[in-house]
Design a protein that fits this description.
This protein is mainly alpha-helical. The chain has a domain at 77-232. The protein has helices at residues 15-31, 33-40, 49-64, 69-72, 79-98, 124-155, 169-181, 186-203, 206-227. The longest helix is centred in the middle third of the chain and has 32 residues, at 124-155. 35% of the residues are buried.
């Protein structure tokens, strides 16, 4: 069975941390945001803490890039795969917008990330930071963690040697359910997890799942800006 992760050898140390650290940094800083907001206010608008969170994850991705063989050393997707990613990403976006109420969410929706000035006009610097984080950093970070690592790790301890096409249904379902439960919109999250996992398995190229994830997140950002539904952010 040929390994997908080009450049890795069985027994090499560090691959798990390489895929966990960016995600862990992002989640840790999100958990610490109330504390940081209190410590930094009023000197810093707490909304700018998102830039710090996305920036930390992005910096780790850049630093670890040579070790991320499924992205750094694998072919970029072709036009057909990009088109497939666009269709799937758009479908996940539709699910995100439709499954937004009732039993499909956990708890009450918060105010979300509102990038407006007190007069109601948009702060375009905050908008740019939020869109860049959601469309460029989060898809790479999450696909590395959830699909490349966790989904395969559930099935095999030697997960780097497990090709996506050999990932079994239980690993796909379990990783997708946990991914969904990470989000307030748990049902849409599970749909997203299943869709991105299918892309990785079907194309054997993590970039296709990353592009689909980026389409979903950037499309959601456009919807948020057009409608003012800040709770999606």
């Amino acid at each position: 069975m040929r390994a997908l992760a080009v450049g890795f050898r069985p027994g090499q140390t560090g691959p798990e941390l390489h895929r966990i650290l960016p995600f862990a940094a992002f989640i840790l800083m999100m958990a610490l945001q109330p504390l940081l907001s209190g410590l930094l206010a009023p000197a810093i608008d707490p909304r700018w803490l998102y830039a710090l969170r996305a920036g930390a994850a992005g910096a780790l991705l850049i630093a670890l890039w040579p070790h991320l063989g499924e992205l750094a050393a694998v072919r970029r997707p072709g036009w057909r795969q990009l088109a497939l990613a666009g269709v799937v990403g758009g479908g996940v976006l539709a699910a995100w917008l439709l499954l937004d109420g009732g039993v499909f969410i956990v708890g009450q929706a918060g105010p979300g990330f509102d990038p407006r000035h007190p007069d109601g006009s948009l702060d375009w610097a905050l908008v740019a930071v939020r869109l860049a984080g959601a469309a460029l950093v989060v898809p790479v970070m999450e696909e590395l963690f959830w699909r490349s690592w966790l989904m395969r790790r559930i099935q095999e301890s030697d997960w780097l040697m497990l090709e996506p096409r050999h990932v079994a249904l239980p690993a796909v379902l379990l990783s997708s359910i946990v991914f969904g439960l990470e989000h307030q919109q748990w049902a849409a999250g599970i749909v997203a997890g299943l869709a991105y996992a299918w892309l990785f398995i079907a194309t054997r190229n993590l970039w296709v799942a990353v592009v689909a994830h980026a389409v979903t997140n950037s499309g959601l950002g456009i919807v948020v800006l057009l409608t003012g539904a800040w709770h999606f952010w």
